[in-house]
Amino acid sequence: MGRFANFISKGIFRKALSPASASPASFQTYDDALASCGGKGYGAEKLVHLIVERNLAFRDNLKSVRTIPMDSLRVMIGIGSMSPLAKLRVLDFGGAGGNHYSVVRTALGADRDIRWNVVETEPMVRAANKRFAGEGLKFFESIGQAASDLGQVDLVFTSGALQYTPDPVVSLSMLLEVEAKYLFVTRTAFNILDKKAITLQTSRLSDNGPGPLPAGFVDQEIQYPVTFESKAAVERLIRQRYSIRFAIEEGPAYRRLGPHFHMYGYFCELAEPKI
Question: How many CB atoms lie within 10 A of CB 140?
């Protein structure tokens, strides 16, 4: 995995989408942006603890009341767009404590054969494997490990994660190399101008993870780097291995960071090899 093992440890949790700065700083590199906000970003242990507690409450609530929040149903767009499969093998890049798995398990039922491997940061993997692993759910620090464990990957899924890695193009390229039958990228921000932009995003601690802020946590402002890759360049990269069955316009969620940053989704099928 090389460099990926280093930059994934800097954080790809479920991300907040509420930017704060009216005149955001611009940076040449991700490392410059990370250094400007204290060098922690999403690698802070307090965020790991928060995400774990919120995912635990989210999972337990789904099991007890079986009511799925509407904004958590994005993952079902990808599952529902696939051909019916008796077994489901999913690699979830940036899937935090497995909340997407919890939604799919609730929707499809306890008897469905599901293996769901989440790729996350080292501290998140360590904590999540203690609290959530089992019943088809596992956590890994690298794409390669997660894919190898699954053997066959039916779906690569990533939601709100790529823009928070040091190099979204490298991350996406590694996901494409898995050559899953289907790829679903959602809730992911790109630059509609044909260039990369790196800046800082500010949110509240309470904006990270599903559900209310757990007792014992004090809300506060946090910052982390965000990279907006060229939308056109990303589409060209995807089309090297996949056909885009449909795209989703998910809105300009970063208005304060700039008018050209929008969120998109892509549901893709692995292209047939050229003869």
Answer: 21
Longest dimension (CA), the chain: 60
Place of tokens 């790529």: 162
Cα dist from 39 to 123, 178, 222, 229, whole Å? 16, 31, 12, 22
Range of the domain at 161: 3-270
Q: Does 275 map to a domain?
A: no
Among residues 43, 40, 31, the alpha carbon closest in space to that of 198 is found at 31
Angle CA 149–42–147, to nearest 5: 10
- Would you give the end-to-end CA distance of the chain in angstroms? 30
Q: Per residue in 139-164, pLDDT tens?
A: 999 999 999 999 999 999 999 999 99
| Domain count of the fold of the chain | 1
pTM of the model: 0.88
Q: Which two tokens stand for residue 117?
A: 């491997």
43 or 179, higher pLDDT? 179
C-beta of residue 101 within 8 angstroms of C-beta of residue 74: no
CATH number at residue 171: 3.40.50.150
Please say if the pLDDT value at position 262 is more than 80: yes
SS3 content of the chain, % helix, strand, coil (to 5): 35, 25, 35
